[in-house]
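Hey, I'm writing a tutorial for new members on how sequence and structure tokens pair up, and I'd like a real worked example in the thread rather than a made-up one. If someone can provide the structure for the chain below, I'll link this post from the tutorial.
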Amino acid sequence: HQVEMSPSQSHDKKVFQLIGPAWSRAFRNIWMMEELGMKYELLESVPASRAAKKYNPSGKVPILLEWEKQSYEASLSGNETAVPSF
């Protein structure tokens, strides 16, 4: 699932970017963000891909990006999306 956004929209609302294929542990984050009605963009990059290694040196996914912040522990990603700081 992808939510398209322009740069101007991303400044108006908190927008997340999730890196990882939907069949991976990223599914939990996708499910949570869908349930909460959050805007996000899904980049379905597989583990150890260039996109994954760009944000996580080990190449593990999921990776949750929120502006300048990033996290790549699945449990932390779930906690951050569960309590958004709007």
